[in-house]
Batch of 3 targets.
Target 1
Amino acid sequence: MGTVVGTVEDCREMFDVSAQTRITPFSSTNQIGNPVAYKLVRVAGDGRLVPATDEEILEVNETDMHSASDACQSLRYLPTEGSPFRLSQLEETSEVINLGLLRADNVEPSTDQVNSQPEYSEEFLQKAQQDESLVMVSTPPDANIQFRNENNMFDEDQVHHEPLPFSSDVQNGCDVNQSNTVEPSSPKETALPAAAASQKPDFALVRGEICLDNLPIKALQETFRATFGRETTVKDKTWLKRRITMGLTKSFDVPTTNLTIKDNKLVGIKDKSNDVSDDVRATNVKEAPSSSAYHVNGHSKDASAHSLGVNHYWATEDLSCEERAAKRVRKPTRRYIEELSETDDKSVVISKDQRLSEKSEVRSMSVSSGKRVTVTRVVPLGGSEVEVPYVSHVRRSRPRENFMALMECHTSCLEAKATGGESNLLNSEVVSPGSVVKSASGPIQKEVSHNNTNEENMLTEADQDVEADHVDSSGNSSDDYNNTGAPMMQGGGVRRKHHRAWTLSEVTTLVEGVSKYGAGKWSEIKRFSFSSYSHRTSVDLKDKWRNLLRASFAQSPSNNMGSFKKHGSMHIPVDILLQVRELAEKQSLVPPNHR
DNA sequence: CTTAGGG
DNA sequence: CCCTAAG
């Protein structure tokens, strides 16, 4: 297992103990089978590598899965002692697949991915060229736009940048790596300039020089915002510059301690993503140059350069540092983070192109030699896409909708017990019939819909219904639940696992319960009043009560029209609503006193 | 695990 | 309903 490569590190702030947890590529001999297998190791004080404990792994994954994946991704830039080539190839595989997916719409499946490259970005480049202020860009489509944005930004900030000619003579300066590394013979290399020379830049080109050094912090922050679409409060110039640089170059090999900006240029950083194909190919060769790059700009001041190398844990750093720099009021939830990155993405990506916005979707599935299917998704984090291996820790709770799509083959099995859907499918374990069945026995949803002119009639009907349900329980319900309970969205995902309309009896029971135990004592209400309804968790009760309150108050003013809302939902008898309101008022007023 | 709230 | 943050 072990090629030991320093990746996650320099997180002294984070793991300021003697040991740091880092991620290393899993490069055992038969690793081909699993492109996204990484191993966590801990670097002990003496530099030894110790297998990370589960907790540590968890910690890493939890505290920052993005960064973890980051680190993983950045691995490719490291001079791996193990089998760089293999690693690269693996990367290549997934990249290619990605590419295929990305451009699946306008390109016929071709075994020669390289050939298809040029057209890939053609449209973007064309578009880009029309943009006056566009400086040379050599990044994938999405990044292109970003850059454009960025450059405008720089314009405003009067950052010096000179537009580079689109023709081939632009090798100047920065992109040393590229010119060295790209194989001249590669189809792409030849095809691109030839086909596109007149109307689009060569991919090997480098964008204009950007001088972050001279920018005041404020400008840096602005730049940061422009780059990542969000504000930052960090005042650390160094951090900002580095962060921006990383965002701009979409590269991770920005040394922690040193700016990658040298002589007013981005130095030693190759756009990792100049066009995907390039990226792929360059991955192999990049090793050498990039390692040297480290030496070049890897050490100039400040002793934070570790013996172990450069920090690639920038995502974490991003979070942790930023956090540190500006106390965040509230800890962002995972979802928040996701959304943030999504918005980030959108705000940066100026317009259309669905593919861009779908970036965070599952993007590639690499089927490795074995039967193991690895799903990865790309997380647009801080302006950089990161491929995140779908490992079990990524999401510990119920999988998101689209996950269901992946499970499609099992859906039939699932449908059979749609009601039981609560079980956690995450770990690719097909739900075993046994594990789920239980709750299917609840009262079946009732079709109280029409004929409800008579409330009392309804009520009794409902009650009967409930009883009946209890009797015949699990058997017949499945059909209903499949339709109403787990509607399949177009994408194939499941919107909700089960939607069970509240029967009137349930509502009344709830109201009773509230009157008895008080609103908020959901667990008690559930325990006592709802013991017979296996479903309806305390949360459900709470939610329902909330809805009832809403309904009651919403409807009360014009009492007349209230009794039934025309929409399908249940028509809650007015008297119940009245009860609800009474209770609500009582409860909201009384608590201070006694009761 | 339970509540409270936002989505 | 679902998902989370806080207790």
Note: Residues 20-327+335-389 of chain A form one domain.
Target 2
Amino acid sequence: MPKAPTSADVAREAGVSQSTVSYVMSGKRPISEKTRRRVAEAIDRLTYEPHAGARALAGHRTSTIAVVMPLRQASSAERLMIFVEEFTYAARRRDHDVLLVTADEGAAGLRRVAGRSLCDAIVVMEVGSHDARVETARGLAVPVVFVGIPDDGEGLDCLDFDFEGAGEVIVSELAGLGHRTVDVIGWGEDVHAQGFNYIPRFTAGAERAARRSDVRLRWHRASTGEDVRRAVDNARAASGVPALAVVTAIPETLHALSERRLRPGRDVDVVALTTGFVSEADGLTNVSTRPRDVSRRVMERVFGLIDGDLATRGGADLVPASLTRGGSTRSRPADRPAGPADNHREKEAS
Amino acid sequence: MPKAPTSADVAREAGVSQSTVSYVMSGKRPISEKTRRRVAEAIDRLTYEPHAGARALAGHRTSTIAVVMPLRQASSAERLMIFVEEFTYAARRRDHDVLLVTADEGAAGLRRVAGRSLCDAIVVMEVGSHDARVETARGLAVPVVFVGIPDDGEGLDCLDFDFEGAGEVIVSELAGLGHRTVDVIGWGEDVHAQGFNYIPRFTAGAERAARRSDVRLRWHRASTGEDVRRAVDNARAASGVPALAVVTAIPETLHALSERRLRPGRDVDVVALTTGFVSEADGLTNVSTRPRDVSRRVMERVFGLIDGDLATRGGADLVPASLTRGGSTRSRPADRPAGPADNHREKEAS
DNA sequence: CCCGATCGTCGATGCGCATCGATGATCCGG
DNA sequence: CCGGATCATCGATGCGCATCGACGATCGGG
């Protein structure tokens, strides 16, 4: 195992001083073309890579973004993977890396990675409505971006999909189809127990739309396939075509409907809240939570803060909810009395 | 934003020298109980955390494990999350962190994180049968553990679930139920295209068992629900009770069977290769790929290498495949002519 | 009661890099 | 043809920590 070359080795190889090598790499001082080339060649020849620790020590930046993730109790593994993926790629585009931190380190985890100078910024996913990490973040030396809108997040950098708008759009759509009762297949008790902030936000939006449209909502908390089946049976008990707002367990719900010979878009109206994977492909009428858009904007915010763009700092930011019509709802009586399925038209949240 | 305290600050606060603080933290030299307490209190009072970069620079260790993950084309997001979860917890238990690296950086990614001294070890997931990273790993200054068994991995640290054994066990089980033809719902073309090493290994095991038991295998590469349906129809075309080895798309397969009113364990025998999530709960007869066991052993290996346990180094290591009988296969004629369902008995791979 | 052996602590040094001030070289306008 | 400005480069310094050698204090055996 040969010792890794240092910038001093490169300097010797190129016949310049170590500081010149440093300036070639950072571009923070003008360097003649000739010197630049010589240094670049030396770097190649030695396959030099700068020592990250030394860089962090001398340069006061780590080129690392810490991401705090709820690994044990993910509401959706696929959704989480999309976030991780987008975060990592965005980081790499700026020559940064991603450090993984588990949510169960809690506030102490934030203090640790910040205190040890392990990162230049922290992203906290799945923040709760009342979250100890919010307060901790205020006192940290590195910027923190929250995915989610905590109740006491005044002045913090928060960013999320507009779950409240999604609740409104979904219920409004079903109301517009003439339904007076909507059954919501909602997050299970286990997810509720986590206190995720998006649940009350979605609920508030849905309830507001329900009041406005004089619709009754029936909430079902579904964790297992059994829960889903029960909820579906419950929805079917009422007379007429049932209306389902499916917020979780989409495959299970479709399965339950299929078992009962209920065809979405004919015998039942289904609008889903999707993570951007499953159901758009299946042509469901749905509102996507747009994980890619959210994560992209999170990283824009992160690098804005790192770069010190003061314009970037503070406040909550929402990615708007929009509905995509698919085959799981009947044509809207008002819109087009007897037209073909009008896929993929979008309707923004109010 | 107050400047972060350094070990020198702690030393001053405690009335000792900086080096004493360092020895208190590392325990590498005897320290009197009195001094230790004074220093510990000073650390608390200042909420001191050591600077990771400085530590890496002076101590030649980073307390970081790099994990290379195939984010874009995960065969299963859930399976991947389990690995990430186990890796992270194992790392934290040893006061290490996890750095995420995307697989599409390829061999260059390994060189980067090793060259920059970003980590003490690298874990590479989903290694291919012929993988450029294998050769690269040999020249690296940090140990690399591969999850998967590449063809040219001689002497490298490889570790994986025994997919070959799984292929054998699954086919043998179905053969033992009297089947002469087995339909395999296998990984889709997209997964094949990645060249993952586990596919040929599983295939080899299945084929060997098929030859031994004089069974004919029909392979179906299923990416979409449509592919699955076609495969199921194909399996049904033959006379008698069909036999299905389901290696991917388990929910889709179950759905397709349900649509066709084929009840697993009665009208069709189903044995699944599961990722440890879905199907055990559903009581399928299955072989689990044991992601938790695999990742645990990976991290044992990683820290063995970091600690310099020479006993740990080199060679491939397989987590054995075992079958768990569930309700998706009929009782075995030879075993018990007319007994109750014999759940949860295990059968090891040969 | 003295001497060698721990034991506990300190000061000095260097890890590899970024950055600052300084210096020599080159340029241009008057 | 000279002086100030610009350009390219160098040397020195310090970031915060781990580690090594040194040294005073304390202890036990003779």
Note: The mean pLDDT of chain A is 89.
Target 3
Amino acid sequence: MPRSLASPPQLRPDGAAGLHGRVTAWYASNARDLPWRAPDRTPWGVMVSEFMLQQTPVVRVLPVWREWMERWPEPAGLAAEPAGEALRAWGRLGYPRRALRLHAAAQRIVENHGGRVPASHGDLLALPGVGGYTAAAISSFAFGNPETVVDTNIRRVHARLVGGSALPEPAYTAAEARRAAELMPDPGPDGGALANAWNAAVMELGALVCTARAPRCGECPVLDACAWVAAGRPEPHYVPKGQAWAGTDRQVRGALMGVLRASDDPVPRDALLSVPGAVPAGGSPLPPGGPDGSAGRDGSTGPDRPSWPAGTSPEAAPAWARLAELPAGGEQRRRCLEGLLADGLAHEGPAGVALPH
DNA sequence: CAAGCGTGGAG
DNA sequence: TCTCCAAGCTT
């Protein structure tokens, strides 16, 4: 019975209604001018943005999103392409399986929804790569449905504003979901317009003001109502566990994918697995004259430069250099390559490994 | 359900 | 430099 969490006394006597107007008003004059929020936005554009924004900052998404919209203005356009094209166009946004899932979702939309992004939470949730947040976000932002949207920004704002904590719990709780639902404006005769605005506004507040690291409380429109500030800004009661990176499979997988993205032709498996485990200090990723065609997998062309397969383009050299800095010839390389193949992020044919068809 | 999955800008 | 972490999803 987390009654205290569901109905916080901090909200009395105004109730949440007092917050709705202030936060949405703040949003009206402080929101970033993002293309997927523009009046001419499309449901597909919103959907693409939501996929790209899963764990990736806005500034890095913007240019890629524009390319995607220009190339694939409708789901059908993407659905007609090989999955590898989606992966290549994904560039370095990270978590490339999102591109794979977005591609699969586009195909599903063509097959089951007449090429139109579905509007209902349930239909959206059934699409690959669409979870609770993304389904609610698309339904709300693209179609104006009064869904309760809860992302990491909104969770943090709620935790501080009405929960009095520095950070939300490590895992999303049912009590949080209940509280988020109760904080939603009542869908009135406006058809949920205020609810829709509230979703976007709280999210933006979390992204711009009520940030994780150094919140800019001086700019907060509801500072006087903040339970966390009222409590004297207590420290988090737990230590967020960091994400390891160096030496992880993710690093190796990323480097392997980088090489595949940069290669027009299939890459011999052997090259992927055994490119030198270290780029000698001071060594240039590419010899001054560019690749000379001297393929090698042990750096035998010289101690001061890495090796890559014959025919490697200059554009692909940086990707090979990143891979070359990682341990080679070991179990990890092989395991990671197998993982990419198993995940459908890569495909192996007679000529070698490439992005999937 | 905790763990795994990419990347690079900011503090 | 090094750590943190950003509009999550899947298994």
Note: The CA atoms of residues 31 and 204 of chain A lie 7 Å apart.
